[in-house]
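Handover notes (outgoing to incoming on-call)

Open items:
1. Aryl-alcohol dehydrogenase-like predicted oxidoreductase: sequence verified, structure written out, both below. Nothing else pending on this one.
2. Nothing else urgent.
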Amino acid sequence: MNYRALGNTGLKVSEVSFGTWAIGGSWGKTSDEEALNSLERAIGEGVNFFDTADVYGDGHSEELLAKATKGKEDKIHIATKFCRAGDIHDPETYTYDRVAAYCEASLKRLNREALDLYQIHCPPIEILKDGQVFEVLDKLQQEGKIRNYGVSVETVEEGLLCLQNLNVKALQVIFNIFRQKPLESLLPEAKKNGVGILVRLPLASGLLTGKFTKDHVFEEDDHRNFNEHGAAFNVGETFAGLGFAKGVELADQLGWIAEGRKSMASAALRWILDQEEVSCIIPGFKNEKQVLQNLEALDERPFTGKELKALTAFYEEQVKSSIRGPY
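Aryl-alcohol dehydrogenase-like predicted oxidoreductase structure tokens:
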């Protein structure tokens, strides 16, 4: 395993880390036994950082992480998120009393005394512009409830806004071959400010594995079924905002990235890790096989200059105009 600095937090995190949305819910059927075995395998392979949220399975992902990391709390770092258990548009959701209650609930489920990284979970830009939530997080940090805080954002504009607050230590962003916009300004600015970058949706909800055909049907409780067009939350969180059919069509054009590499998925992850500003990727998983497949990115060869130019052109000419929603 390779480790990278999470900005200037002082934490060193495994460059392939994992998100736990899939094991909590909204990705089809899950098994706690399989999830715990997968977490144990990831930790055994050197993974020391996991991302979760209080709404993943209504806190179930946090409870699973507590079981998996018992006795390893000083070695395994956890980031969790808040605000989506309430009305994200209501300023009351971000008051001290409300955020402190969210924090305490997460600490209890995680069985921890302090959170390594506490993130605002994709709030509206108006909340970020108001800025009072940052004062609340400063207070929780002073009380020792959280060690660092950051923001999970939907757009580059939101990310750049967050960088104006010197106490924001990490940004969680959607970034992959289909979503290259952060390369233009956000990643360089984050690096300049010593802010860590966590990359979610590195495989664009599975599109960049190349395994789907246009006639694939997702389970009813899988967000790839019910949120393809943004019915439940931001459309960009599902298939990078492309829509399934368009995403499959574009993924079919990317098969060449697997040439000389283990798979299209590991190649897509390698492309992200080739960006020096990235602290870690946090792909999801539901079983040990997926954990190991994601870890294959560590051993993939970097992309050549010619390949990188081809992927930039592909994004600009084929992908960019098809992304729906702000990004």
